[in-house]
Amino acid sequence: MTQADKQALPDQRSEAAGDTPAGEAFPIVGIGASAGGLKAAEAFLDAMPGNSGMAFVMVQHLDPDHESVLADLLQNHTTMKVSQVAEDSPVQPDHVYVIPPKRSLAIRDGVLVLAELDQPRGRPAVIDQFFRSLADDRRHDAIGIVLSGSGTEGAKGLAAIKERGGITMAQDETEAEYSSMPSNAIASGCVDLVLPVAQMPSKLLEVTGHAGDFNLRDDDAPLEQGEVATLDAIFAQVRSSKGHDFSDYRRGMMLRRIGRRMRLRSRTNLTDYLAYLRENESEVETLFGEFLISVTGFFRDEEATQALESKVIPKLFEGRGEDETVRVWVPGCATGEEAYSLAILLAEASASLERPPAIQIFATDIDEAALATARAGRYRDTIAQEVSTKRLDRFFIHEGGSYRVGKALREMILFSRHNLLQDPPFAKLDLISCRNVLIYLTEEIQAKVFAFFHFALRPGGYLFLGTSESLSQAVEKFSDVDRKARLFRRREGAAAVRSFPTPVPGAARSSGSRSAGGTGERRGNGERPQRFLLERFAPPCVIVDENWCITYVSGRVGKYLEHAVGKPTQDILELAREGLGLELRLALAQAARSGTPAVRRGKVGAAGGWHEVLLTVEPIPDSGGMLMVAFDGDKSPGQEQLPAQVPHEKLASNGESAAEPDSGGVQETGAKLIAEIEAELKSSKALLQATIDDLETANEELRAANEELQSMNEEMQSTGEELQTSQEELQSTNEELVTVNQELHSKVGELSESNSVLDNLGASTNIATV
């Protein structure tokens, strides 16, 4: 698009963003780029009209040792004024602002503020820093775009913009000259639109044209009756598909999330959007993800984290022995950064104790995708901006361009799906860290959640909330520890919780739809006969995982399994009653090795004698090594129990004792048989014990070899990290050189064009010119 073409376009401001008088909010577009970003930015401005009503801020990695001519180069591609940011520059619509070298950039109250770089070389996170400040300052008027560049920067900043209701875009990675930055942003799931650069301006004008629609009402704005019904229908559509009910979330927040999708789908009212939702199952999935947007990070809110570390963490270990456990719950853990941060603080505190207690952290969420990320424990190398080098070296393993959580830290945390509003809480907890979750819930639901927290905590337990949350609904249940840091302690004597959450209709854990009304009741009536039949006629059975730990029990297995004195365990071999262990071990090994059912007959000791039992161990297909173990006792009552010893006499029908014929011979034969069986059993036990000893010895040798390999691996990792650091520095320098080279190339092109014009002028005049 030529400059003349752009000047001839009609005024887009009233159509896209409305007239923008002084002081009125208008969209601000943050553009992040690195190597190859100059060409993409020029193409973007070529397609963007000069009267859109938006402002544009270009943030790019620049060489700190050279003056940038980026503003001059971009000015040739737009009628808008392009300027390099000076100190405290107020942002105006239809202007383009460019970051200067050696500075970081933020926006506060519509004013661009510069600061010195904390990390002048390497990989300063100038793009993420600006995107975060843009999200806080402009909220739904913030737009973030990631263009060509290497590295991972930009993804976290886009997540912050999306969480605040703004729009996020990324350049099509197949078009980008350097695809790392857009690819990482897209992979993070925080990008709304992936487009070629030339198509972005028209989409921006379309999206900002709905900026004043219904979705931007605040919490206090009344809804018409029809709008309330439509909103409830949207929640029902998500609930029937995903099994989660969002009707108890704050209406204003839900409307903003729905409004984002309406803007992106060009729907101007809720009714139109509901119709679109019913016709497109993929949009239901996207809206569900929209509702679950959460921005998290390691050691968020530094002052609050320091208060937790100094005022609460040490008290959790006071008076605790090595046979006790410090229990922590992190509801709404998202992708796990907060849970791992707490684990680091607890691990550091316990390291100073001679006999520290065990640490168990329960981290829960309803977002399966986020939990999968948390369980993997792998994060981009940008976490180096949040986690100190000392902690990275101690608790993380650097692999390529990411950090993986170390085994010791990972084993402290159990990640699981748990709905705070529908599932019962955990119990006997020392600390609950529920940060930036309650702000999404209505005050009535907040009061219930606080009651559950009060129940879940031990006497004197602690509650850690987000900086935007308060105890307004539960001041009688908790006392202040540090109000500014949102640290509280459980009060004694407060009213106890009377009931736990119960699943709402349709809130199934599966993703399949379920109709409302009486369906659950009818299904429940149908399940009762089925359960009766299984309990009455099916043999008792358990399901074990690949480590032979019990994961599920069906029927009464108490005749075959029992808990021994001491620490509880789920190992089926340790739970097996006397006499059953050897046959059970052999059956498990045979089924696991062959992948086919294994059947063995054994005996289990019980009061008064031994009982025969038929063991059936069968692999479960496509379960990752899980096995089903069924215990089937002899159905013949007369043969089920074997006598513990051969009787010397039997009772006559009249109750008097009668001597057995040839009792001495029978007694002698029985005693001999018993002695032979006992000798064979003793021999089998000795052989088994010897085999176990050999196995343990081999395991010790393998463990020692493994430790040596780990030591060698750590040395190699240390060398690899040094090489990786050098590579990052070289890559950063290369990016800066690429940017400078592109700028020089553009300048050389302009100079060649000027020289050509002068040559043509001289050749055409044939007149000496001084």
Task: Write a structural description.
With 770 residues, the protein is an alpha/beta fold. It is 42% helix and 19% strand. The chain has 24 helices and 28 strands. It has a seven-stranded parallel beta sheet with strand order 3-5-2-1-8-9-10, with helices on both faces. Strands 16-12-11-17-18-20-19 form a seven-stranded mixed beta sheet. Strands 21, 22, 23, 24, 25 and 26 form a six-stranded antiparallel beta sheet that branches. The chain starts with a helix and ends in a 5-residue tail after the last helix. 34% of the residues are buried.
List the strand order in the largest sheet.
Answer: 3-5-2-1-8-9-10
Give the overall shape.
elongated
The residue ranges in which pLDDT falls below 50 over 5 or more consecutive positions are: 1-23, 211-216, 502-526, 635-661
Summarize the biggest pleated sheet.
7 strands, parallel
- Count of DSSP-assigned helices: 24
Terminal Cα span: 38 Å
Mean pLDDT: 77
- Which class of secondary structure composition applies to the elements? alpha/beta
The tally of beta strands, per DSSP, is 28
Helix content: 40-55%
Beta-sheet strand percentage?
Answer: 15-25%
State Rg: 35 Å
Question: What topology emerges from the helices and strands here?
Answer:
Blueprint: H1 3-8, H2 13-16, E1 28-33, H3 37-47, E2 55-60, H4 70-75, E3 81-84, E4 89-90, E5 95-98, E6 103-108, E7 111-116, H5 126-138, E8 142-146, H6 155-163, E9 167-171, H7 180-187, E10 193-195, H8 200-208, H9 225-242, H10 251-264, H11 270-279, H12 281-291, H13 302-311, H14 313-316, E11 325-331, H15 337-350, E12 358-365, H16 368-376, E13 378-380, H17 389-395, E14 396-399, E15 402-405, H18 407-410, E16 413-417, E17 429-434, H19 443-456, E18 457-465, E19 478-482, E20 487-490, H20 519-537, E21 541-544, E22 550-554, H21 572-575, H22 581-594, E23 598-606, E24 609-619, E25 627-633, H23 637-640, E26 641-643, E27 650-651, E28 657-658, H24 663-765
Parallel strand pairs: 1-2, 1-8, 2-5, 3-5, 8-9, 9-10, 11-12, 11-17, 12-16, 17-18
Antiparallel strand pairs: 4-7, 6-7, 13-15, 14-15, 18-20, 19-20, 21-22, 21-25, 23-24, 24-25, 24-26, 27-28
Helix pairs in contact: 5-6, 9-11, 9-12, 11-12
